[in-house]
Amino acid sequence: METEKIHNENCLITMGKMPENYVDFVITSPPYDEIRNYHGYNFEFEEIAKELFRVVKTGGVVVWVVADATINGSETGTSFKQALFFKEIGFRLHDTMIYYKNNPMPQTGNRYHQHFEYMFVFSKGCPKTFNPITEPTKYQGLANMKNRGQNGSLDYEKVERTTEKKVGNVFFYSVGGGISTKDKIAYSHPAIFPEKLVADQIKTWTNEKDLVYDPFMGSGTTAKIAHLLNRKWIGSEISKEYVQIAAERLRKHTANNLFTEI
After folding, report:
1. pLDDT tens digits, residue range 97-120?
2. Considering the entire predicted model, what is its pTM?
3. Of 151, 172, 220, 246, which is most buried, counting CB atoms within 10 Å of its CB?
4. Which CATH number fits the domain that encloses residue 22?
5. How many domains are there within the chain?
């Protein structure tokens, strides 16, 4: 299977060429609830989920970024339905993380602004790799005895130490023009990942040289970040228009021809 390619085809065709237990990590945002126009392409969720289980290695992870459309006044619940199906076919729901948008588009009506999407972390068995993102935290405690008081009491010196702790599972990102990415051409796609979101997840669940797959490559964010982080990668994208956007975006990062025709 050729890597470092965006295959302009249905992801089921791409995965059909892969052997079992082939991919280390998947990160993607599927075209849920027909929010995006894919020119008649039918999103075959259950078949895609089953193929992902087949091609992902034991110990591999899928990060599935999804939300719910509001139709006839009710959220669809698609995100929950998909998460439960992934469990039914053998994946573990390792974590339910939140992608929180610091600056969402304002909404009208009788709902609060929609600030988040789900980032479901599905694992095939126990994740084999976990490189947690950490942040500094200050710890206050007592050091060794400083001196003994006249009345025999012990006088301890207070100290402050800085240690590291894992961040929480709510990830905050600002989005929009010039923020999600500096690549202007990427905004020709209607729904792009923040580059930092993809970088955070690739760093967490993979090591260098691992193979990353995005079955809905879109504007090419996963390919770009995987390449910059020295991971191997493969992408599928049904829309030729989006493949062309991704290829133009990635041209400055690699000399390879970044897509194949159906």
Report:
1. 999 998 877 778 888 888 999 999
2. 0.85
3. 220
4. 3.40.50.150
5. 2
pLDDT bucket at 6, cuts 50 / 70 / 90: very high
Structural domain containing residue 162: 135-166
Q: Position 135: which residue type? A: E
Which backbone phi and psi does 106 adopt, to 5 degrees? Answer: -65, 145
Least confident of 58-62, 116-120, 246-250, 251-255: 251-255
Residues 176 and 190 in one domain: yes
How do the residues of the chain divide into helix, strand and coil, expressed in percent and rounded to 5?
25, 30, 40
Dist CA 108 CA 90 (whole Å):
40
Same structural domain, 152 and 181? no
Phi, psi of 155 (to 5 degrees): -110, 110
Name all contacts of 102-110 with Cβ < 8 Å and 24+ positions apart.
Answer: 102/172, 102/173, 102/174, 102/175, 103/174, 103/175, 103/176, 103/179, 104/175
